[in-house]
Amino acid sequence: MRAAVLHETGQDKLEVLDDIEAVGFGPGKVKIRVRATGLCHSDVSAMNGVLPQPAPFIPGHEGAGEIIDVGDGVGGLKQGDRVLLCWLPACGSCPACKRGQTELCLAGFMNAGTPNFKRPGGDVFGFAGTGTFTEEVVVDAGCAVPIPDDVPYDIAALIGCGVTTGLGAAINTADVAVGSSVAVIGCGGVGISAIQGARLKGAAQIVAVDPVASRREAALKFGATEAVSPDELGDAKQRITAGEGFDYVFEVVGKSATARTAYETTRRGGTLCIVGAGAMDDYLQLNMFELFFDEKRILPSMYGGGDVLTSYERAIALWRAGRIDLESMITHRVQLAEINDALALMRTGEALRTCIEI
């Protein structure tokens, strides 16, 4: 079967091969025919080594498709079911799950170290234990979440990561207050979803911050009240908050420099929500006096900061009701053979989300 493979960490292009085999099928597993997958910035971060992932590997973790085989002991799923892929399934029995913090379950991360593909040259890993830039993938049954018949595969794929992460950051983690002021730094697919979440929660001002003009223009269509370049953020802070700072600032880039800017843009007593996935050697510096004196809440948000199954259902309900716009987030569509074109669109910032149709 075909799949897009990164041979070595640090390479900037994928090779589409046709000698890949999905492996590991057996009890507790399902095999999925992937129909649509989104390109998330985390895929690029894994390719360049910012996020740890053994290579060679198949990127992709934001996918949807149909079940083509079910292993022994799997309940509630059958051949032909339409599903989205959850790259961080909850085991239900670890301390985090028992506390109700299922987004902190480590079971899914353990899958990333087990190859779920092979080719004549040897084993191939799937990013985040999935690897959706492929025609078929074998995953734990918990990674396959049934979707209603009226949810298209491309919409389901978005909900599988970017939408859940961004919406959840605003709704679950930060719990944006009605009438508040918000700034979102980084307006790709996750940032746009955070903007939609802040709008749903009733924020009065939502400032989108991004260096790419097309993304700033798009942010206005999704609920931002204004959009500025990073150089204009200081002026927006002065105009909108009289220099005090925003009630909520979302950092959706994953770099210490933008996190520091976000901290400085947050008012005293306000909330800084860290959504971007960054590198382990990129350190955010804060001094002990400002931590004490400013009393700013610093809230990291992992996968939307809530139960992902509940978040999926909420996103579908909001989409059905027309309260969130997911179709317009897909700005480009490509075939698997054109995956490197999708990567180029992401790196230039031209695309909000590219759907790879498989």
Task: Walk me through the structure.
With 358 residues, the chain is α/β, with parallel strands linked by helices. It is built from 12 helices and 19 strands. Strands 4, 6, 7, 10, 11, 18 and 19 form a 7-stranded mixed sheet that branches. A 6-stranded parallel sheet has the order 14-13-12-15-16-17, with helices on both faces. α5 (162-173) runs parallel beside α6 (189-200) and α5 (162-173) packs across α11 (308-320). The chain is globular and about 60 Å long.
Which features characterize this protein?
358 residues, alpha/beta, seven-stranded mixed beta sheet, six-stranded parallel beta sheet, 12 helices, 19 strands, 29% helix
The percentage helix is 25-40%
**Termini, distance in Å?**
11 Å
Radius of gyration: 20 Å
Stretches where pLDDT is under 50 for at least 5 consecutive residues are none
Q: State the shape.
A: globular
- Please, what is the oligomeric state? single chain
Strand percent estimate: 25-35%
Largest beta sheet, briefly? 7 strands, mixed
What would a concise description of this structure say?
The protein is an alpha/beta fold. Helices cover 29% and strands 26% of the residues. The strands form four sheets. Strands 4, 6, 7, 10, 11, 18 and 19 form a seven-stranded mixed beta sheet that branches.
Summarize the topology.
Layout: E1 3-5, E2 15-17, E3 21-22, E4 29-38, H1 41-47, E5 57-58, E6 62-70, E7 82-85, H2 95-98, H3 107-111, E8 117-119, E9 122-126, E10 136-140, E11 144-146, H4 153-159, H5 162-173, E12 181-185, H6 189-200, E13 205-209, H7 213-221, E14 226-228, H8 233-241, E15 246-251, H9 256-265, E16 266-274, H10 288-294, E17 297-300, H11 308-320, E18 330-335, H12 339-348, E19 353-357
Parallel strand pairs: 5-9, 12-13, 12-15, 13-14, 15-16, 16-17, 18-19
Antiparallel strand pairs: 1-2, 3-8, 4-6, 4-10, 4-19, 6-7, 7-11, 8-9
Helix pairs in contact: 5-6, 5-11
